[in-house]
Amino acid sequence: MTTASDIPSTAMNPGQTRGPRRAALGVLIGAVLASGAAYAGYEVYLGSRYESTDDAYTAADTAIVTSQIDGLVVDVRVVDSQAVRRGDVLVTIDPTDANLALTQAEADLARAKAQQAAALADAERAGIDLKRRLPLAGSGSISGDELTHVKNGSTMATSALQAARATVALAEARVERARLDLERTVIRAPIDGVVARREVQLGQRIQPSLPLLSVVPVNEIYVNANFKEIQLKDVHVGQSVRLVSDLYGDHVVFHGHVEGFNGGTGSAFALIPAQNATGNWIKVVQRLPIRVRLEPSELQAHPLRVGLSMTTKIDVRSGG
To answer: Which residue in 172, 180, 222, 230 is a FRET match for 163, CA 20 to 30 A apart?
Structure first.
């Protein structure tokens, strides 16, 4: 038989447990309200200050190296991923034909100059002859036919001199062109950077404008960040940007600024623009690429490569 002494004290005094439970519930509600207030404060003071996206990638204005003359490749001095400086020799084309062309052009120039000298002497002699006879024509010492003949000779000598001078100028231009073609047998790096997409091979016969390789200016890499159009209301050129690369992780933070906006969204420049007039159109929020310039000193300390993923956060309250 159960007695009063066997009944738990909590069953006999339910009010004793109700108080702690209410206190715990009050603490929980207070914590929820505090969290909500903190989140609201974050949105007002911090969250609304930044616009961020992880749809961002590194890019660079890559230099595509081509040849300006045709010829046989006799030397390739670089490989993919090799760092080069502006002016470094990348590829050499067989200079034999260019040397022959320069020698021929210089010989043509020498011959043209000799012909010009002879023409100059003829013109000067014809001019002197004409000056001597002009005074005699007034006194009747020479006939009109003779004077006309001398005048015609002087005119022809002057024309021959002008033609000889034009020939010399043309020959000089050909020499300069041949000299340039000889210089172009040595292909040099147009900028500082890293070699990429090397396609030229030793022994290959190349043609002008054929892409040989690319040079990526890794110290001038920028970021194309694709923001939703609804994020761009308060974004302006010059605002500061914080960026993190998947390559280095969160412990390396890059800094930059908004340099400009693309002229259109990615879909606007697609081969087949997304235009629909059939009535089944669905609105899709578009993304606009924003160009972000990075700090050169940070790029030197932590080099990046083209195409790497970046997380980008713009401070819309910063200057700009």
So the answer is: 180
pTM of the prediction? 0.72
How far from the centroid of its chain's Cα atoms is residue 30's Cα?
Answer: 57
For residue 186, what are the β-bridge partners?
A: 92
In the sheet that 89-93 helps form, which strands lie side by side, from edge to edge?
186-188, 89-93, 71-76, 205-206
Tell how strand 193-196 and strand 50-59 pair up.
unpaired
Helices (H), the chain: 9-12, 15-45, 96-139, 144-183, 296-301
| First CA to last CA distance, the chain | 86
Residue with tokens 């629909």, as numbered in its chain: 276
Q: Which DSSP string do the residues of 37-71 spell out, in sequence order?
A: HHHHHHHHHTGGGEEEEEEEEEE--PEEEE-SS-E
Residue 178, both tokens: 């041949």
**pLDDT at 84 > cutoff 90:** yes
**CA torsion, points 158, 162, 165, 170, in degrees to nearest 10?**
-160
Q: What is the CATH number of domain 50-62+216-315?
A: 2.40.30.170
Which H or E run includes 311?
A: strand 309-315
Long-range contact pairs involving 245-248 (C-beta distance under 8 Å, separation at least 24): 245/58, 245/302, 245/304, 245/308, 245/309, 245/310, 245/311, 246/308, 246/309, 246/310, 246/311, 247/304, 247/305, 247/308, 248/302
pLDDT in tens, 167-193: 999 999 999 999 999 999 999 999 999
Which two tokens mark 222? Answer: 């920028």
Strand order in the sheet with 193-196: 63-66, 211-216, 193-196, 83-84
